[in-house]
Design a protein that fits this description.
Elements: E1 9-13, H1 19-32, E2 37-41, H2 50-58, E3 62-66, H3 80-97, E4 104-108, H4 110-115, H5 121-130, E5 136-140, H6 146-151, E6 154-157
Parallel strand pairs: 1-5, 1-6, 2-3, 2-4, 4-5
Helix pairs in contact: 3-5
Length: 177
């Protein structure tokens, strides 16, 4: 495995489109430079997406593991199984982060899971504190808590200016999925 040197904590948050896309761009660049990347997707189910299809072509250097359920989570529709799945995904993330197998770990929608109360904030802090020096840790999702932003080394906020979803355009294959 190519050593990364010091790894940092990056956060991509905000109400605009592009948080997961930005993290996948990092993953692509990392793989192109001989690094190994794992993406654990919180709150996303096992349906096949374009990014998962692409990752299969780049395996074993890039792996994407969706560990949520299909469909969107909304504050009033969270079930106990969502909390259980999210906590299991977090435990898996900690195990993989400390395994030494990966140079970059992307925790997609972890911020959202925390903002929705599916994952306790103190568990996210613990995960951030356990990050090995040689690992790049990337957290994506809306609503990153202030304390997560303060602990991160790099924070980017995506801001929606205009979005075609507002005109009724559904998610498109190859662009949003």
């Amino acid at each position: 495995m190519t050593p990364l040197g010091r790894g940092y904590i990056q956060v991509y948050t905000g109400d605009g489109k592009g948080k997961t896309t930005a993290s996948l761009g990092l993953a692509l660049r990392a793989v192109g430079n001989g690094l190994k990347v794992l993406v654990i997707q919180f709150l996303k189910g096992a349906e096949m997406t374009g990014e998962r299809s692409a990752a299969m072509k780049l395996a074993p250097d890039l792996e994407i593991r969706p560990l949520g359920r299909n469909g969107l989570l909304h504050p009033g529709l969270i079930m106990e199984r969502d909390r259980v799945q999210a906590l299991q995904a977090l435990e898996e993330a900690v195990a993989e982060m400390t395994s030494g197998r990966w140079n970059m770990l992307i925790l997609d929608e972890l911020n959202t899971a925390c903002a929705l109360g599916v994952i306790p904030l103190d568990r996210v802090h613990q995960l951030m504190d356990l990050k090995p020096d040689g690992l790049e840790l990337v957290l994506t999702g809306r609503g990153a808590p202030k304390s997560v932003i303060e602990k991160a080394d790099l924070v980017t906020e995506m801001k929606e200016i205009r979005h075609y979803f507002r005109q009724g355009v559904p998610a498109r294959e190859g662009i949003e999925r």
